[in-house]
Amino acid sequence: MIGLTNSNGNITYSDEVIAKIVGLSTMECYGVVGMASKNTADGLWELIKVEHLNKGVKINYKNNELSIDLFVVVEYGTKISVIAGNIIQKVRYNVENHTGLKVANITVNIEGIRF
Q: What is stated as this protein's family in its record (predicted)?
């Protein structure tokens, strides 16, 4: 659970809620095909359906700051550095704007390219 205390009281977010905001924000970015999840049985990465986007996101909350790791699949022919920059900007804005939590860093891991 991730908590925030302000003048109105305490607000608590589950990791799943934060991950869902991150996943939906990521999917809105141009060039993103989907989120990736590692299949632990055979070590392969697979695309995640929209209902389970939070499985492609890892959240760490320490010292009142969020660290976010994303695992994405991008479209072939797009510039990966531009896509990653857009993801970082959009995710940071949406998480901070919707929740009031501070995002310390975002790491975008490109797990695959889809043709």
A: Belongs to the asp23 family.
Report the DSSP beta bridge partners of residue 62: 65
* Own/partner long-range contacts of 92-100 (Cβ < 8 Å, ≥24 apart): 94/21, 94/22, 94/25, 95/18, 95/21, 95/22, 95/25, 95/66, 95/68, 98/21, 99/4, 99/11, 99/13, 99/18, 99/21, 100/4, 100/6, 100/11
Q: Are 31 and 72 in contact (CB under 8 A)?
A: no
Q: Which helix (H) or strand (E) holds 85?
A: helix 80-99
Number of domains the chain contains:
1
**Is the pLDDT confidence value at 37 over 90?**
no
Other CB atoms within a 10 A radius of the CB of residue 34 amount to 23
Mean pLDDT of the chain: 86
**Rounded to two decimals, what is the model's pTM?**
0.84
How many Cβ atoms from other residues are within 10 Å of residue 93's Cβ?
Answer: 12
Residue 65, domain CATH: 3.30.70.1350
Residues of the domain holding 58? 2-114
